Each structure stands twice: as C-alpha cells, then as structure tokens.
C-alpha cells in the first residue's frame, strides 16, 4: 500500500513524510480501527481511507510535530471507523436533541485552563471528542475539520455546537 501512497505525490519531501507517517503510525491506526470495528478487513479499509485523506491534506502534516501528527492520524481513523460502524448499523450520525446555535451563543464564556479544557473534552463521546480536539486543541477551522474527517460542514457545525453546550454544562456542574 505504501507504494500507492508514494505514487500519489511528486514531491520528495511529501514522499518522505508519507513514508514516515505510514511506517511509524500505521499499527496504532490499525489497532484503533480494530478496537472500534472488531473486524480486521474493515479496520484495514479505515486505515486506507485515513491515508487517502492524509494525502489530500499532506501540507497540514508538515507543520506539526510527531505527537500532533499521531493525534491527527488517530482522530482521523477513529472518525472513519465510527462512521463505518454507524453506516453498518444503519444509525444516524447525530441524535435529534441538537441545541440551536442561539442557545449555545447565549451561554456564558468560560475561563478555563488548557488542561481543564482537554480534560473536559476527553469526557465527550468519541465523535464529539474528535471534533472538539481538532477545533479547540489543534485550532482547525470548521472547514478544515470537514475536509479532514470527510464530513458535511453542517455536521461539523452541529457537533461543535453540541460539544460547546456539553462543555458549558460540565463547567457549570464543576462550579
């Protein structure tokens, strides 16, 4: 598979980065996908899809450290695996109880430390956790998240709103 990914780019720098990401992180991505899908073939498909998305967004991976890159890769493959699982189970991606943007905007701004934000994000559901991490920890835009996770921009916006509402609720309960 690595040869397919390497053939997709002409830049020597990109080829080197793709080879590094593939050799270093393929196993952790595969294990993440297997833990969600419980099926080796589906997990391989999820990893393959994740690397195709990496190829589309390779410029983003050049500017981040190894720790950030592995975080992105795990988030991407986790999102793909969760979407595959949802599709397999014919479940909808989002529940009906999505708060409106106005409701979320009316909530008060909260001053939290970086560690508190990360801790609260880790308490979210896996799909919201992925989007919240990309949004507030890695500071990607909704459009970038949409492209990276291959999600509709409106789904990303709804997830961001839901995550904000949940995080605000968690913070109020902690006070």
List the helices and strands and how they pair.
Blueprint lengths: L1 H6 L4 H26 L2 H17 L1 H5 L3 H23 L12 H6 L7 H8 L4 H12 L4 H8 L3 H22 L1
General description of the model:
- The protein has 175 residues and is mostly helical.
- The protein has 2 domains: 1-91, Rna Polymerase Sigma Factor, Chain: A, CATH 1.10.1740; 94-175, Arc Repressor Mutant, subunit A (Orthogonal Bundle).
- It is built from 10 helices and no strands.
- It has helices at residues 2-7, 12-37, 40-56, 58-62, 66-88, 101-106, 114-121, 126-137, 142-149, 153-174.
- The model is unreliable at 92-111 (pLDDT under 50).
The CATH homologous superfamily of the largest domain is named RNA polymerase sigma factor, region 2, helix turn helix motif
CATH class of the largest domain: Mainly Alpha
- Give the radius of gyration: 17 Å
CATH second-level architecture of the largest domain: Orthogonal Bundle
- The termini sit apart by 51 Å
Low-confidence stretches: 92-111
Shape annotation: globular
The residue-averaged pLDDT reads: 80
Compute the number of structural domains. 2
What is the tally of helical segments?
Answer: 10
CATH topology of the largest domain: Rna Polymerase Sigma Factor, Chain: A
Strand residue percentage: under 5%
| Assembly state (oligomeric) | single chain
User: Which structural class do the helices and strands define?
Assistant: mainly alpha
* Biggest pleated-sheet summary: none
Order of helices and strands: HHHHHHHHHH
Tell me the total number of β-strands.
Answer: 0
